[in-house]
Amino acid sequence: MLRVQPSLRPPLDPDFLPASLWNRAYRDLVAADPGARRLALALAHPDGTASLHQSRVLAADHPSAAANLRYVERLLKFLLWQKGGCRVQLAGADELAVHLARIYSPAGERAFDHEFMGAKVYGRPLEIERADFHGLPGESSATGVAIGRHLDGCRIGFDLGGSDRKSAAVIDGRVVFAEEVAWNPYFQADPAYHLAGIHDTLQRAAAHLPRVDAIGGSAAGIYVGNEVRVASLFRGVPTELFEQHVRRMFFTLQERWGGVPFVVANDGEVTALAGSMALGDNAVLGISMGTSQAGGYVTPAGDITLWLNELAFAPIDFRPDAPRDEWSGDRGCGVQYFSQQGVARLAARAGWTFPDSMPAAERLAAVQQAMVSGDPRASAIYDSIGICLGYAVAHYADFYTLRHVLVLGRVMSGPGGRRIMARAADVLRTDFAPLAARIRLHVPDERDRRHGQAIAAASLPVLPGS
Q1: Residue 401 contacts residue 281 (beta carbons within 8 Å)
Q2: Angle at the Cα of 384 (from 380 to 388), degrees rounded to 5?
Q3: pLDDT at 1
Q4: Domain residue extents for the chain
Q5: The predicted structure's pLDDT at residue 448
């Protein structure tokens, strides 16, 4: 139905179907359709805030009308993981609302999203319903919050990843100590493992400070008011133990540290904040390619959003047989392209044979060493990631106001990271020239790579009287 011809193709993912190009072709089809209809999607949260997305779709009797459902379903999927919400209202195409309600139901293809966006995050079922335009909520004005950029005093910053815990001791914005400690949190059923590990990290950093005035941290997952809502770090903890010991874990740690100001935020948001602080500018999308893919955004006004920004589960590849995410079960989502998992997936296509028990981090290390040695298989992996990233950045630009995209994480280390950025820039120059002129792609320098995230995390809390 739609002719999509990428100018550049990932050598190890030649059938990659960029969402950015598919949507562009669809919009061109809509623009040529005299019967095209206005469409709006409103996503509301329990606190009354909402986001509103306006678009257009083909007439119901258009020869290519079947593309409408593909377009709107992938659009809703992206918006759910970008902005969140547990009540979805669709106006302008009633027949699509019926299909979406079926797909995002406990028995539908997106049963995972139904459960996640409903009971897990917002504590109520995800609802999708038809609506009239005049009955839709407007875009909430309070979408951002000023956070971070506080560097006074003696602070600890930490970042919790899937393979290591990073920490730094910071005095008036100057890092006096930084380290990484390996750990394996994903499949630990006892929450005492996590609590002891984080406390140990704080103690090691505190040993290099005359006192501790504040503690700030970042971690993958969804955190609201320092409360853990959903986080892959604790995926191995049974639900009952999670509720008893994990949900308010950071309050427990705050008590252990004498009640000092203590703030925890999503690691993607802190990545974007670190980029904004380093660049001295705003409208920054941060992407971290580590154990998973983290995303965060600093608005043009310099605020962090109240959105989810979980880009790991936002679709960027529209081919029907795209790689399937093992957690959500969906296909074509960012985690399978921009993470250690993505490197391991492509390494198999490039001809590597690893033991099944070999962790993704070790597979990445093997590929990185091969890249240093000039192995063409490694070059093909990084070329593939970079081309996919270029098309993904163009897709993200449909949903975010961007001046800068900061990309970091273990996947970006060494010459492979430089190759990723070069290929991404090639895509933007070739297929999205206006975006290439407006958006700058960045990799942090060595100092920012080592300390920027920790400094930004340490800057989250406000000291009393500041």
Answers
A1: no
A2: 170
A3: 62
A4: 19-135, 145-466
A5: 66
Q: What is the pLDDT of residue 267?
A: 85
Tell me the C-alpha distance between 420 and 84, whole Å. Answer: 29
Computed on alpha carbons and rounded to an integer, the radius of gyration of the chain in Å comes to 22
pLDDT of 436 reads: 98
Where helices occur in 43-110 by DSSP H, the ranges are 67-83, 94-103
> For the domain with range 145-466, which CATH number is right: 3.40.50.11750, 3.40.50.150, 3.90.550.10, 3.30.420.40?
3.30.420.40
| Residue 21, pLDDT score | 98
- Work out the burial of residue 264: count CB atoms within 10 Å of its CB; fewer than 13 is exposed, 13-18 middle, 19 or more buried: buried
- Give yes or no for a contact between 86 and 117, defined as CB atoms under 8 angstroms apart: yes
Q: What's the chain's length in residues?
A: 466
Query: What distance in Å separates the CA atoms of residue 8 and residue 385, rounded to the nearest whole number?
Result: 12
pTM of the full structure: 0.90
The pLDDT value recorded for residue 366 is 97
Q: Are 378 and 392 contacting, i.e. CB atoms less than 8 angstroms apart?
A: no
Report how far residue 360's alpha carbon sits from residue 410's, in angstroms, rounded to the nearest whole number: 11
Strand order in the sheet with 127-130: 50-57, 37-44, 87-91, 127-130
Give the C-alpha distances (Å, rounded to integers) separating 235 from 191, 246, 286, 325. Answer: 10, 11, 24, 15
Low-confidence ranges of the chain (pLDDT < 70): 1, 141-144, 446-451
Return the pLDDT at 446: 65
Distances in whole angstroms, Cα of residue 210 to Cα of each of 122, 169, 170, 206, 207? 41, 10, 11, 8, 8
CA distance 267 to 262: 15
